[in-house]
C-alpha cells in the first residue's frame, strides 16, 4: 500500500478514536491529560505528523492538508468540550482531600418547638392533644360560647370574617353565610363536647387570627386551649393545673397571678399573668407594669355545657386558653421583647435558638 494512503487511514482512525475518547472526559484535569495525549510534543497526532517528513514530496502535498485538518478538528473538539464543561482550562480542579463545606443546618421554628413542649407537659397529666378547625362557623367561635349574635363581648375578638362556600350557606344558625378565621381556640370546646366522650381532658393547640399587630400582638398566633370536664371539677383543680404548667414551663421559682376577669363562657373567670422576664418585674415597653398577660381561664359556663349536650347539674369543668407566642417569649433568659420578631423570618434572630 502507498504510504500516503496508509497515512490517511491512520489519521482518519486517530480522529475517530479521539472523538470517541473525548466523550468520556468529565473534568478539567482529564481534558488536560487528553490534550497532551493527542496534541502534546509526544502526543499521538504529533508522532504521526513527524512521519510526514519521510514521504515523497508529491504524497506530502496530499497528506499535509489532511493532517492539518485532523489536528485542527481535534483542537476544536477539545475547545468545545472545555466550553461544555464550563472550565477555562486554567482553573485548578477540585481537591477532594480538602475539608467539605458543611451545609447549614436548620431547626424547627420556635413556635413548633414551643408547641411540642406544651403538648408534652400536658400529656404527662393526661391531657390529649386534639385539633379543631381553624376556620369555623360563627356558632362554634361565638354562639356556642354563650355569646348571642348581638352580644358586645364579640367585639373583643377582632375577628376576620370570610364568606362561606355556597354549599355551607343555610338559614340554620350554626351554618351561616359567614365563617370566621377562629379568633381563639375556644371554638374547640363545644366541638369536643359533641364527641360525646366523658370525661374530657383535651389540649387543643392551633392557630388563631385577629386584626391586631403591635409589640404584643400579631394577626396570626397560636393558642393552647385546655378543657377538663368531669364530675366534681372545682376551681382548685384549675389552679393546680395552671401551677403545674407554670412550674414545668418556667421553673418552680417563677411568679404568676390569677386576676379576676370576665369571659362570657366561663364563670368565674380569670386572666393569668406571669412576672415579666424582660424587665424582671420592673415594668417595660412590652409588659408595662411588670406582669405579662398570657391567657384566660375559668369554670365552664353552664350554657356552654348545655350547648355541648352535657348536663350542668351532673358535670362541671374548667377551661383555659393561652397564647403560645407570649408564653414562649417569657421563658427565662430568652429576652424576646417584641412578638413580631417571631415571624420576621430573620435568620440572624432565629439562628440564636
Ligand atoms: C381568649 O382568647 C379566651 N378564649 C381564653 C379563654 C379560654 C378564657 C378558655 C376562658 C376559658 P384572650 O382574648 O385574652 O382570651 O386571649 C388569650 C391569650 O391569647 C392572650 O392572653 C394572649 O396571650 C394571646 N393573644 C390574644 N391575641 C393575640 C394576638 N393578636 N397576638 C398574640 N397573642 C395573642
| Tally of distinct domains | 2
CATH topology of the largest domain: BirA Bifunctional Protein, domain 2
CATH class wording of the largest domain: Alpha Beta
Number of strands: 10
* Rg (C-alpha, Å): 38 Å
Characterization of the model:
With 353 residues, the chain is α+β, with helices and mostly antiparallel strands. It folds into 2 domains: 3-85, no CATH class; 110-350, BirA Bifunctional Protein, domain 2 (2-Layer Sandwich), CATH 3.30.930.10. It is built from 11 helices and 10 strands. The strands form 2 sheets. It has a 7-stranded mixed sheet, sandwiched between helices. Strands 2-4-3 form a 3-stranded antiparallel sheet. A hairpin with a 2-residue loop joins strand 7 and strand 8. The termini are far apart. The model has no long low-confidence stretch (mean pLDDT 91). Bound molecules: adenosine-5'-[phenylalaninyl-phosphate]. Adenosine-5'-[phenylalaninyl-phosphate] (FA5) binds next to strand 6, strand 8, strand 9, strand 10 and helix 10.
Question: In terms of topology, how is this protein built?
Answer:
Elements (H helix, E strand, L loop, with lengths): L2 H20 L5 H12 L4 H7 L6 H29 L24 H14 L4 E3 L4 E3 H4 L18 E4 L14 E4 L5 H7 L6 E10 L10 E11 L4 H16 L5 E8 L2 E10 L15 E10 L1 H6 L8 E8 H6 L17 H4 L3
Helix pairs in contact: 1-4, 2-4
Bound molecules: adenosine-5'-[phenylalaninyl-phosphate].
Amino acid at each position: 500500500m502507498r504510504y500516503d494512503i496508509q497515512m490517511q487511514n491512520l489519521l482518519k482512525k486517530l480522529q475517530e478514536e479521539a472523538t470517541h475518547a473525548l466523550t468520556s472526559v468529565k473534568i478539567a484535569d482529564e481534558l488536560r491529560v487528553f490534550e497532551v495525549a493527542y496534541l502534546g510534543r509526544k502526543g499521538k497526532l504529533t508522532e504521526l505528523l513527524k512521519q510526514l517528513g519521510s514521504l515523497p514530496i508529491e504524497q506530502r502535498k496530499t497528506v499535509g492538508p489532511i493532517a492539518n485538518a485532523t489536528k485542527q478538528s481535534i483542537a476544536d473538539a477539545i475547545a468545545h468540550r472545555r466550553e461544555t464543561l464550563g472550565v477555562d482550562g486554567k482553573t485548578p480542579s477540585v481537591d477532594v482531600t480538602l475539608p467539605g463545606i458543611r451545609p447549614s443546618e436548620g431547626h424547627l421554628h420556635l413556635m413548633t418547638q414551643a408547641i411540642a413542649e406544651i403538648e408534652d407537659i400536658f400529656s404527662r397529666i393526661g391531657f390529649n392533644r386534639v385539633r379543631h378547625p381553624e376556620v369555623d362557623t360563627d356558632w362554634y367561635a361565638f354562639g356556642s360560647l354563650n355569646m348571642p349574635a348581638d352580644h358586645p363581648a364579640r367585639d373583643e375578638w377582632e375577628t376576620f370574617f370570610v364568606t362561606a362556600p355556597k354549599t355551607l350557606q343555610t338559614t340554620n344558625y350554626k351554618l351561616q353565610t359567614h365563617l370566621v378565621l377562629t379568633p381563639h381556640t375556644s371554638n374547640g370546646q363545644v366541638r369536643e363536647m359533641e364527641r360525646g366522650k366523658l370525661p374530657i381532658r383535651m389540649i387543643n393547640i392551633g392557630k388563631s387570627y385577629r386584626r391586631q399587630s403591635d409589640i404584643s400582638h400579631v394577626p396570626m398566633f397560636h393558642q393552647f386551649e385546655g378543657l377538663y370536664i368531669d364530675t366534681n371539677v372545682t376551681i382548685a383543680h384549675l389552679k393546680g393545673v395552671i401551677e403545674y404548667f407554670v412550674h414545668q414551663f418556667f421553673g418552680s421559682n417563677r411568679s404568676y397571678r390569677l386576676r379576676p376577669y370576665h369571659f362570657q363562657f366561663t364563670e368565674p373567670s380569670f386572666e393569668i399573668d406571669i412576672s415579666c422576664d424582660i424587665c424582671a418585674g420592673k415594668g417595660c415597653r412590652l409588659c408595662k407594669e411588670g406582669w405579662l398577660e398570657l391567657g384566660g381561664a375559668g369554670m365552664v359556663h353552664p350554657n356552654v355545657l348545655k350547648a355541648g349536650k352535657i348536663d350542668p347539674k351532673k358535670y362541671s369543668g374548667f377551661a383555659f386558653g393561652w397564647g403560645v407566642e407570649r408564653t414562649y417569649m417569657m421563658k427565662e433568659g430568652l429576652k424576646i421583647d417584641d412578638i413580631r420578631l417571631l415571624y420576621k423570618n430573620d435568620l440572624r434572630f432565629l439562628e440564636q435558638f
